[in-house]
Write a structure and sequence with these properties.
The chain is of the alpha/beta class. Helix content is 34%, strand content 14%. The chain has a six-stranded parallel β-sheet, with helices on both faces.
Amino acid sequence: MPISNTESGRPLLIYLHGFLSSPQSYKCQLLKQWLQQERPDVIFYTPLISPYPGEAAESLGHLLEELVRTHNGPVGLAGSSMGGFWSTWLAEQHGLPAVLINPAVHPARLMPKYLEQDLQPYSGELQTYRLRQRDVDTLLELEQSLPTPLEGRYWLLAQRGDETLDCREAEQFYRGQRHTIEEGGDHSFQGFARHMSALVDFLFPNH
């Protein structure tokens, strides 16, 4: 992702989408449009994440390393579901703040039910892919690489009505961090737009 000299010093918000999703997902586009209207000073970037954990870790790791090294401004992460896991993994490597939206805490537990199936992103892409047992093993290794407890630079946004993930796991994993736990809702996080201004303030408190 090239960043021109004219963007030097501006906050850079990197949003990481979830499993079976893409940068075309609803929350990605909603946040992008809101930033364009309300916070045009913030650079927004949402990369396409490989569904294969090894590939995703390698590409995201290289991306963040390059951005942190070259961008002359603050960098913050936000991620939903599996993107919440990737945000945490990257934040720990680079000491970055992150907002986690109904994040996957133990994604390797969920992967076995998807093995050896033709999978397709729900956001409309035609490409299909298949996960293998080695992908689950790689994801488990990545999970186990995360330290506990985490340092205090996270904000957990979760809804108890999440039908895919048990938010109690996230509450426990992100204990000691800032929490906003809402009753009801679902895995998509109903009413996400209500928190977008606060999300930016949390990631970039001096901007």
